[in-house]
């Protein structure tokens, strides 16, 4: 759906020309201040259907967290219309809280000094979850997220990855219809990331939970989402399939190969290009939308391959390439920045 599209009445999440403006005061000299009005979200529109799993990505400061905070009722929009399950988040925040779950990356919803299980017991009472449903959900979440050894451990003693799994479980104890996830795999090792991704797939498939996922790990998006939305400078600049994003941004993945000895640059034709050689190690760039398997098989067959790894493209780089390829990249001075930030003399300035 394009940024200016009409919001569908049947959508589960509706965002119609929503904006958020913050007033920021800055000192510009002795007894002088300026009031800057910053548009964190600039007239964005989209809909999300019930049961859809959507990636919501963009560079730091693009407006992702601000959007989610408006969808949860934490922030009130400066303009436009928001509905989640037919509810206005800012007007009926308490009612909405029983239908949504939220995991805010580095900020925990757990009680810092209490054992993990005590946080869950408190949520049992806060959300008034029926006893049978609470026990069933807790047992299932503990098993799937591997939390059994952590239940009696105070939250402050958990690693970031352990706490993240604990937060995901806490967000799902009351069977929310919508789950907002901000960097759900941050701090997790490869095995734990796989478990969390598989869990989220099952949650979406079996229970039809609607998921809005923000992340800087493109593998999260590739493995979980069929649709991705990109926000940049507060504006929705892309809404579609991930393959289309890679195509628009001409993004590339990097295959790092370690050979048994130093050799001339690897020749695999048009499948990839060598961008760097350092002794027996070589870096090859290939289209992000392409599979690495044929490329790896060809190198293994023709060269003395010892080891390899694949590096995903950086989201900021993908977005930057996409903006330049479509002619939307900001110029200097930036018209887009000017549209986001308005300077107003602060009261009391001489």
TrEMBL record:
State the compartments where it is located.
Cell membrane
The ranges of region (Disordered) come to 327-350
Q: Which Gene3D superfamilies match?
A: P-loop containing nucleotide triphosphate hydrolases
Question: What are the UniProt keywords, alphabetically?
Answer: Antibiotic resistance, ATP-binding, Nucleotide-binding, Transport
Entry keyword Nucleotide-binding = yes
Please state every residue range assigned to the domain named ABC transporter. Answer: 19-258
Question: Is Nucleotide-binding a UniProt keyword of this protein?
Answer: yes
Signal peptide residues on this chain, from the entry's feature table: none
- Annotated SMART domains: AAA
Topology relative to the membrane = Peripheral membrane protein
Name it.
ABC-2 type transport system ATP-binding protein
List the molecular function annotations (GO) for this entry: ATP binding
